[in-house]
Amino acid sequence: MANKDVSIIIADDHPILLKGLYEELVSNDYNVIGRAADGMNALELLLKLRPDIAFLDIDMPFLSGFDVIKMARDKGVNTRFIVLSFHKEASYINRAKTLQISGYLLKEDSFFEIARCIEAVISGNTYFSSSFDHHSLDQANEELRSLQLLTPSELRILKLVARQISNNNIAEELGISVRTIEKHRSNIISKLNLKGGPNALTNWALTNKKIILEI
């Protein structure tokens, strides 16, 4: 597919970064059909224009890039999403993988890297910035694989833990004993290979709350 045949929208709340990305894409013959400076405007453009690719900053006013992606997909938008961020933490990588985002680039990346990402994404592949170290990506993959080991009952309990609901209230809501809840929690801790004492599961669930609730 020629560059001019790839329709793109871009969204970033930093005017200089938005302008710079727009100019780089246009100068390389990409068809940029829309720009947005916040998450709400980005969502409106997605619903209206349905581009092939959307570049979204993660941290934007009104709606984050992740929120925009989830809401656009709920509306049936088939756009391939590439997120742009300064964040390298495993929790962000995990959330991107959970949302099955096509690409994850860092704002420090060169346009050469951006072009490689576009090519990969258009070909139906997933692309993560070469600036990510293998350990971060491997850690994210391992955590997601561990979540897939949970039974439906364990996953439901984990979601309630992430919402900071107590064992007593979880037991009441599910109609089972507190002792059964404690056993489930122990199994979850073992499957996720968590360490750090009795609060390990709660702390991990709160850190990864958005990922857990989207599964």
UniProtKB/TrEMBL annotation:
Keyword Transmembrane helix part of the UniProt annotation: no
Residue ranges of domain Response regulatory in the record: 7-122
GO molecular function: DNA binding
Domain HTH luxR-type, first and last residues per copy: 143-209
UniProt-listed InterPro entries: CheY-like_superfamily (IPR011006), EvgA-like (IPR051015), NreC/VraR/RcsB-like_REC (IPR058245), Sig_transdc_resp-reg_C-effctor (IPR016032), Sig_transdc_resp-reg_receiver (IPR001789), Tscrpt_reg_LuxR_C (IPR000792)
Keywords: DNA-binding, Phosphoprotein
A Pfam family matched in the record: Response_reg
Coiled-coil zones: none
List of residues that carry 4-aspartylphosphate: 57
GO biological-process terms attached to the record: phosphorelay signal transduction system; regulation of DNA-templated transcription
Name of the protein described by the UniProt record: Response regulator
Native organism taxonomy: Bacteria, Pseudomonadati, Bacteroidota, Flavobacteriia, Flavobacteriales
